[in-house]
Amino acid sequence: MRIRTASVTAVCLVLLAAGPLLAGCAADTAAAGTQPAGTQSAADHKAPVGLGSAEQVAAYLEQGISAMATSVVYTSATDPDHLLGKAGGYQSKAAFTDSRIQPGEVTGTGASPVDLGGVIETYATVGQARARAQHLAATLQGLAASEYHYYVGASLIRVSRILTPSQAADYQQAAESLG
């Protein structure tokens, strides 16, 4: 009986430990135009090993998405949102273009980097990345400027609304491959 009690106790402990991980697997569908995110760990876990910066995430994504090319790796001096390195802001940021977006599809002279392909913002925790996505969803709700959101660890991948859902799914699949 002792062995059986120990086995039941061990199983219970494993299930209790897995609870927060399973809770973090919920998809982020808060915003119009937002696609589900890949499987995520608990909100306060760090990015996967070797992918601690937006530039590293971009380099990984480029390996699987031939239409993607990193265009800018921001510094605190060049970040247009002025959030890089600030408390609650991202720790790194990179922009990318997607060759499936034609220049004529992007309207206005002040096109954002997200319009041209997307942006990757890396935070200290997954929870901060999700909070940013929720803030953006609330800000963009009902506007034509909605975008797709995916996650790689503590990185938020913001993908242009100009891409079709099947084109944007390339980013989702690449993000999920890091699962």
From TrEMBL:
Q: What keywords sit in the KW lines?
A: Signal
Indicate the secretion signal residues: 1-23
- Taxonomic superkingdom: Bacteria
Q: Does the keyword Signal apply?
A: yes
Keyword Signal (UniProt): yes
Which PROSITE patterns has this protein been placed in? Answer: PROKAR_LIPOPROTEIN
Q: Which protein is depicted?
A: Lipoprotein
Q: Which organism is it from?
A: Actinacidiphila acidipaludis
